[in-house]
C-alpha cells in the first residue's frame, strides 16, 4: 500500500489534501508533542487514528517513537526508559497500529549539509557532502546544522558527544541488543512489527558511531532476536548513499525472511565519495533502479506500506525540507504506477 508521511496537526499539509493523491490510502505519522522517553498513551494514539480515519485513510505506521539517548548509551536509567517504550508499543497494539519505524542513530537522525541544493531542472533538493560536514561548527550546538529538528544547546551537545566517547560501534551493538531483547517480545505479543530504519547517511558523522549501515548490519539486527516482530525499514535512499550496498541483494536477503515491514522509496545521485544529492523518484533521475527495487520487494513477498520519501521543492512550494506536498505526491503516483505494473494491483 502506498502511504504518505503526515506530521500531525502542525503539518502545513492537511490530511484532506493527502486524501486527494490518487495512490495514497495509508498514513505514516507520530505523536510529535510527547517528550522523548515518555510513554505514549492509548488515548492519544486512538485520537490520531480517528483523525486519519475521519479523512478516509488508515494509520498504517508510526514513524517514529524516538529511542532515548540513555538507551543508546547504555546508562542505568535505560531500564525505566525501555519500560516506557514497551508501554508505547502495547498501546500501539491496542490502538490497532501495526508497524513501528524507529532508528538507533546516536544524537543525530538523518543528516544533510544542504537543504536547498539546486538541481539542473531548477528545483531544489537535500544534499550531503562529507567535506562540507567536517566544516560544520558544533560550538553553537545544533544552531548551524541545516534543518536539524532536535535542538541542542552548545553545552547539551557537548555533554552528549562527550558521553559517546566511551561508546564505540561494539558497545552500540550491545546496547541495541539489550534494547531488542526487551522490546521485541512485547512487540510480538502486541502484534506490532518493529522496523529499524538504516542510518542516514550510512557512515559515522562527527566521530559518532553508526552501525546500521549495510545489508550485513541489517542481517545482524534481525538475528539478534529471531522473531518476525524484529524487522527493518528498507530505506532505498539511505542505503544507496554507499555505492557498496546492493539494494536488490539486501531485499532478497532480509525480505526473503519476511523481515522488511516498511519501505521508504526515494532516489539519490551519488556526486562523489560520501557525497550525494536527492533527486526526483524515477529511476532515470538518480542511481537507484526503482523498478528493480519494487520488483525485488514484490518477489520477496513484501506487501506492507511503501512511502514516497523526501521530495524536491518544485512549483514554487516552500515548506519543511524534504516534506513538501507536490514532489512527494508525484513520487507516490510513480511508485503506485510501478507497483501496479509489477503486481497487477
Ligand atoms: C527522514 C526520515 C528519518 C526517519 C527516522 C526513523 O526523513 O526517514 O528521520 O523517520 O530515522 O526513526
Would you mind describing this structure in some detail?
The protein has twelve helices and twelve strands. The protein has a single domain (2-343), classed as TIM Barrel, CATH 3.20.20.150. With 345 residues, it is of the alpha/beta class. Strand 7, helix 8 (215-224) and strand 8 form a beta-alpha-beta unit. The radius of gyration is 19 Å and the shape is globular. 37% of the residues lie in helices and 17% in strands. An eight-stranded parallel β-barrel has the order 1-2-3-4-7-8-9-12, surrounded by five helices. A four-stranded antiparallel beta sheet has the order 5-6-11-10. Helix 10 runs parallel beside helix 11 (290-299). D-mannose (DNO) is lined by residues 63-64, 101-103, 109-110, 197, 264, 310, 322.
Give the arrangement of secondary structure elements.
Elements: E1 2-5, H1 15-18, E2 26-29, H2 42-54, E3 58-63, H3 69-73, H4 78-95, E4 99-102, E5 114-118, E6 124-129, H5 130-133, H6 154-163, H7 169-190, E7 193-196, H8 215-224, E8 230-235, H9 236-240, H10 247-255, E9 260-265, E10 267-272, E11 275-279, H11 290-299, E12 306-308, H12 326-343
The structure holds D-mannose (DNO).
Amino acid at each position: 500500500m502506498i502511504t504518505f508521511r503526515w506530521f500531525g496537526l502542525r503539518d502545513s499539509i492537511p490530511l484532506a489534501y493527502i486524501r486527494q493523491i490518487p495512490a495514497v490510502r495509508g498514513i505514516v505519522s507520530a505523536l510529535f508533542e510527547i517528550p522523548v522517553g515518555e510513554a505514549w498513551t492509548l488515548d492519544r494514539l486512538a485520537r490520531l487514528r480517528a483523525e486519519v480515519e475521519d479523512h478516509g485513510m488508515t494509520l498504517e505506521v508510526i514513524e517514529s517513537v524516538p529511542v532515548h539517548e540513555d538507551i543508546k548509551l547504555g546508562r542505568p536509567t535505560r531500564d525505566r526508559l525501555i519500560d516506557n517504550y514497551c508501554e508505547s508499543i502495547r498501546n500501539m497494539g491496542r490502538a490497532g497500529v501495526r508497524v513501528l519505524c524507529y532508528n538507533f542513530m546516536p544524537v543525530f537522525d538523518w543528516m544533510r549539509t544542504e537543504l536547498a541544493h539546486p538541481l539542473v531542472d531548477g528545483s531544489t533538493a537535500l544534499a550531503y557532502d562529507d567535506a562540507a560536514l567536517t566544516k560544520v561548527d558544533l560550538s553553537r550546538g545544533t544552531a548551524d546544522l541545516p534543518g536539524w529538528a532536535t535542538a541542542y544547546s552548545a553545552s547539551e551537545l557537548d555533554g552528549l558527544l562527550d558521553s559517546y566517547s566511551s561508546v564505540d560501534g561494539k558497545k552500540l551493538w550491545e546496547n541495541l541488543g539489550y534494547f531488542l531483547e526487551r522490546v521485541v517480545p512485547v512487540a510480538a505479543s502486541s502484534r506490532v512489527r518493529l522496523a529499524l530504519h538504516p542510518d542516514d547517511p550510512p557512515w559515522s558523522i562527527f566521530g559518532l558511531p553508526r552501525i546500521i549501515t549495510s545489508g550485513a548490519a541489517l542481517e545482524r539486527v534481525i538475528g539478534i532476536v529471531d522473531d518476525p516482530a524484529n524487522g527493518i525499514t528498507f530505506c532505498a535512499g539511505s542505503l544507496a548513499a554507499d555505492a557498496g550496498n546492493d539494494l536488490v541483494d539486501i531485499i532478497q536477503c532480509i525480505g526473503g525472511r519476511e523481515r522488511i515491514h516498511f519501505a521508504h522509496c526515494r532516489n539519490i545521485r551519488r556526486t562523489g565519495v560520501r557525497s550525494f544529492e536527492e533527486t526526483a523518484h524515477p529511476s532515470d533521475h538518480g542511481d537507484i533502479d526503482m523498478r528493480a527495487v519494487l520488483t525485488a520487494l514484490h518477489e520477496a513477498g513484501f506487501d506492507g506500506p511503501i512511502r514516497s520519501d523526501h521530495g524536491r521543492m518544485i512549483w514554487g512550494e516552500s515548506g519543511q525540507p524534504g516534506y513538501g506536498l507536490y514532489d512527494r505526491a508525484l513520487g507516490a503516483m510513480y511508485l503506485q504506477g510501478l507497483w501496479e505494473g509489477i503486481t497487477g494491483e
